[in-house]
Known about the structure:
- The structure is a single chain.
- By secondary structure, this protein is α/β, with parallel strands linked by helices.
- The protein is built from 7 helices and 11 strands.
- It has helices spanning 33-43, 60-69, 95-107, 142-151, 172-198, 211-215, 228-241; strands at 2-7, 11-18, 21-29, 49-53, 71-74, 84-85, 112-118, 121-127, 132-140, 202-207, 223-224.
- The strands form 2 sheets. The protein has a 6-stranded mixed β-sheet, with helices on both faces. Strands 3-2-1-4-5 form a 5-stranded mixed β-sheet, sandwiched between helices.
- Helix 2 links the parallel strand 4 (49-53) and strand 5.
- The radius of gyration is 19 Å and the shape is globular.
Amino acid sequence: MDLIIDVGNTFTKLAVFEKNKLIDKKRIETKNCISGIRELQKIHGNLINAIVSSVGALDNDTLEYVDKEFKLQILSYKTNLPFKNLYSTPKTLGIDRIALVCASVEEFPDNNVLIIDAGTCITYDFINNKNEYLGGAISPGIRMRYKAMHNQTAGLPLLKTEVPKNLIGDSTASSMHSGVVNGVLNEIDGCITQYLEDYQDLTVILTGGDAKMLSKQLKSSIFANSNFLLKGLNFILNYNLY
C-alpha cells in the first residue's frame, strides 16, 4: 500500500491507497505530521511507498522520518510525468497543478480535459487529447475575495462564506455574498464556455475545498471529485515505481 502526503503550510492531507483505490485519508495540522503518519502505520501495517508534495513546508525531522520509513518520492517539476509539459515556465508550475493533470491522464486518457481547482486560488489546467499540457489560468478563490474586500476597504466586514439567497443583495452583507459567490460561478461557467468554443468534446473536472458548494450551482456539466489531487499523487507514485 502507498502513503500520500499532500503538505500545506497549516494542514496536511494524508491518504492511503491500495493500488488505485483510496482506502483511508485524514487531515491534520502540518506540525503534527509524524504522529498522523504513525497512526496510519498502525492501522495499515504494510505501507511501503510514499510520495510527498510541497516538501518545503515540512520540517527536517518529518522529512527524515518519512525517508527512513518508506521508499520515498518527492514530487517536483523534474519528476517523470505521464504527459508532455508545454508550460513555458515549468519550474513555476505548482505541484498541485501537476498532480491534478496526472489524475486526469489516468481517469480520462486521450481526452480534452479542463481541471478546475476551487481552493485558496481557483486554478484552471488544460490538457488536450494529444496528452499535451498547455497551461491554464489562476484567479482569486472565494475566501481570498472576501478578505480582499475587507482588507482593501474601510467599511466592508470580513464575512464567512455563504451561498446568496437572491441575486440582488438588499444589505451590505448579502450584496457581498452575491458579488463573491455569483462572481465565481459566472467566472467558472464563462471559462468553460470559452473552452467549449475551441474544444467541443471537453471533459470538465471540479475539485478543491469549495467544489462541493459550487458544483450544485454551476450551469455547466462537470464531474466533481474532492479527491482528485490525491488520486493524481498516487498515480505519479506508481507511474515512477513500475
